[in-house]
Amino acid sequence: MTDNEERMPLTFAEVYRRARAAGGEAFPPFDLRRGLNDLRTWIDREVDVVEDLPSAAVRRSQPELRGRHDLLAELVTLARRPAEGGPAVLVGAGGSGKSTLAAALTQRARSWDRQVWWVSAADPANFFEGLTTVMSDLGGSTTDLESIANGAADGPDRLWRLLERSPRSWLLVIDNADDPWILAAADSPAGVQDGRSWVRASQRGLVVVTSRETDPRMWVGARLFAVGQLDEVDAAQVLRDLAPQAGNESEALALARRIGGLPLALHLAGTYLGSGLAQSHTFAAYHRALGSREGTMVARTAEISLDGLARQGIPQARTLLRLASCYAPEQIPTRMLSMSGLKEALDGLTGVGLIRSDSAAITLHPVVTATHRDRLEGPEVWRTAVAHLVGALGELSHSQPECWPEYRLLSQHLLALLETAAEHGDHEHLARLADATAGVARAFNHSGAFRAAGMLCRIALDRCVALGEEHPAVLRVRHQLAWTVANRGDLTQAETIYQEVLDIRRRVLGDSHPDTLRSRHESGWIASLLGDLAEAEQRYRDTLRDCVLHLGPDSRDTLTTRHELAYAIARQGRLDEAQPIFEEVLRDRRRVLSDLAPQTLQTQHALAWITAKQDRWAEAEALYRRLLDLRQVLEADHPHVLLTLHELAWTIACQGRWSEAETLYRQVLERRDRTLGTDHPETKATRYALDELLRGEIIDAEHPA
């Protein structure tokens, strides 16, 4: 190709044919995976590559990116040579087209055979789920993946080790990072200022961040790209791209001048005019319609579209959009939007560009969400949103691992509702949100996500302060908060919270209320953790008596108290007394729950521990290994899994296989140190066991309650 020839898009097959012609036998027989690595230098010099002709044709049918060609060219250059200036941060007002520009870059990157990821940073749940996907695609270990899920301090370093070792060049887009703190790691400052955050420079690929935060002090160390409004000519061309039959150039220019250069508003106007819903499909008619509207331009354009849908017999589209605006903008399950005519409303809103939808969920632009949240008239829609979320959560079980991802997804919508609780909430719906928080936090605690549980509880307690400290729902949240605090190792603070909750419940609800019985049980548990085993045993016995009387012998709570009573007995050395209690609890839990229920596995764990304490080492090892197989559905760094591994190492050491035990202790120590923290009691227990093993001593595993 000479300098005077026009560069043209080619398929990979055509690139290969031309390269073979240019380089003779320099290229091996056609193998796309291997051949692209050899062709990359020649491709960069000679051609722009597209993936294949059909997909290229589809892209050509989409509206062209207007007014951003210079910005896109700079980003393309940076993506090809990321070491020269990355990472890149696109900043601008909501609706200015930052995400659209980033999407155009990803389209280019895919045509160069780059690996591309798109991660939303609109909320922590989506952000960390997206980063987990990146790690998984890069071949990260289970431990790597759990470092993100558990908020481990070394999570960013683990991600970046994988990115730097990637065999392919890559592009990572982090979209909607409007709160730069989400990108910070551990004690790092917000944004990307110190090179230790989730966003860093690399020679292997480029990170692109989109954000409404325009303060350059947040982005020291990155290359900043300001994405502003379009000029009138480009704005008019956007309208003509979307609605080519709506008028001539001068009419489009007049409407663009009226709307302004915000791409989101232009997109909504043009999509509506091109959808066939408008009464008069002209730029001039739309110009007149704007004159009777109030509010921001996004609000005006959205209302015109909703009016058009109403005229077409879909008035419920407006109700649906208001309802969806109560939640977080992304991944709103359609089952939480149930109403008459839902499918027609979803199709209509998708057709005019107000939502993106698939079979299971919808996504709104954050500006559309904020606009319609501001236009809620009274609390009724918000209350409906609360009811639908509570209903969706009610379909889940906090103790079932297969439900934990759904809890994480729904937690972002719970946070969105809590954010507006003070404005729209009455006591009834605040209480429902508090109860929902307690349920989600309980699931997080069972899954080992203690930090997420604690954060959620504290936010809910702040938002639901109007309920008062004695409200049963508030006490349930505080109960879960205490469990979170205890599981993170601060037993003194946890004991204080538990005691305060117990005192209030006894005074307000009475000694035999189910909530009070749960607090009495936890009072025994915390005493056991603090080493006061005789006191713990007495508290459990008192609680068990009332549980059997008021809840019944087969109640989950009754079975839990029986299980913990046996532990308190066993840890005082009365193994022969504890073992038959555990065996009875195991039979009852299998009958009432299931063989694989987490509570059933906890009792099997207890029996494995007692077997080891009775010096039946080989039998105990077999029980622990069987337990690990049964617990394989749990996340690898779940506290119960690590406890099983710690005690397995103990049984192995007691059989004389010291080197094997040392290796296993080291693995558990690394994972506990990362997920629980250096000062957590369970981390200290593993460190002490390892240190003593290296000195020639074996430390018994004192199984915690």
Description:
The chain has 705 residues and is mainly alpha-helical. The strands form three sheets. The protein has a five-stranded parallel β-sheet with strand order 4-5-6-3-7.
Q: Identify the strand order in the major beta sheet.
A: 4-5-6-3-7
User: Biggest β-sheet, characterized?
Assistant: 5 strands, parallel
> Shape from CA axes?
globular
Structural class determined from secondary elements: mainly alpha
Keywords, separated by commas or semicolons:
3-stranded antiparallel sheet, mainly alpha, disordered N terminus, 5-stranded parallel sheet, 32 helices, single chain, 705 residues, 61% helix
What is the gist of this entry?
With 705 residues, this protein is mostly helical.
Write the layout of secondary structure elements.
Elements: E1 9-10, H1 12-23, H2 32-46, E2 48-49, H3 53-61, H4 69-80, E3 88-91, H5 98-111, E4 115-120, H6 124-137, H7 142-149, H8 155-164, E5 170-175, E6 205-211, E7 223-226, H9 232-242, H10 249-259, H11 263-275, H12 283-290, H13 297-311, H14 316-324, E8 332-333, H15 342-351, E9 356-357, E10 361-363, H16 366-374, H17 380-394, H18 404-419, H19 421-424, H20 427-447, H21 450-463, H22 472-487, H23 491-508, H24 514-529, H25 533-550, H26 556-570, H27 575-592, H28 598-613, H29 617-630, H30 639-653, H31 658-675, H32 681-694
Parallel strand pairs: 1-2, 3-6, 3-7, 4-5, 5-6
Antiparallel strand pairs: 8-10, 9-10
Helix pairs in contact: 1-2, 4-5, 6-7, 7-8, 9-10, 9-11, 10-12, 11-13, 14-15, 14-17, 17-18, 17-20, 18-20, 18-21, 20-21, 20-22, 21-22, 22-23, 23-24, 24-25, 24-26, 25-26, 26-27, 26-28, 27-28, 28-29, 28-30, 29-30, 30-31, 30-32, 31-32
